[in-house]
Amino acid sequence: MTRRAAVHMIWLVGAVGAAMTAACSNSTTPHQPTPCPSYSGGLSQGDSLYGLYQLVSYCLDTLPAYGPPNISGHVTLSHAMGVDSFVAVIVNQGQPPESILGTYTHPLPDSIHVSGNVRVSGFVVPVELPGRFLLQQNTLSVSGRLAVTGASPHTVSFIGAR
Fold it and tell me: I need a labelling partner for 63 at 20 to 30 A (CA). Which of 27, 39, 43, 83 fits?
């Protein structure tokens, strides 16, 4: 099971690289990869992270970020029976949906740590995402380091709107 998830992550990283190569192929200057954006700033007074956020953009390792219509999905943060839960569904056009199911904590004002499992095509692999977030009005921006068992860690960021 871990091998297939690692192969999927390698495919995803390869697809991002191919897209970047195609986007930069007409340039006359050497391409300098730009890292995914990072966010911080935490909660504003009285705000809550809980809610459903539709995916606006998603970045893995380097820009460009991807979003609808090629990649769509949502993130749900909820609280039930004393546990903060995290559910993310990412759909890459033409691929099976990926789900990340788990729990999260935010010990410092702008820190978030997601622990759970990635589920792709019936395979389940543990995942950790320590990072930072910024909540402004109805937009949640998260950046961090995605560590999937069996694959190298990746810098990731996403923006969701509720």
Answer: 43
Residue 107 has a CB neighbour count (10 Å cut-off) of: 7
What pLDDT score does 143 carry?
Answer: 96
Q: What global pTM score does this model have?
A: 0.76
Number of independent structural domains in the chain: 1
CATH number of domain containing 146: 2.40.128.120
Q: How far apart are CA 134 and CA 43, in angstroms?
A: 7
Q: The domain containing residue 124 runs over which residues?
A: 2-161
Using CB atoms within 10 Å of the CB of residue 149, give its burial: 0 to 12 exposed, 13 to 18 middle, 19+ buried. middle
CB 77 within 8 A of CB 84: yes
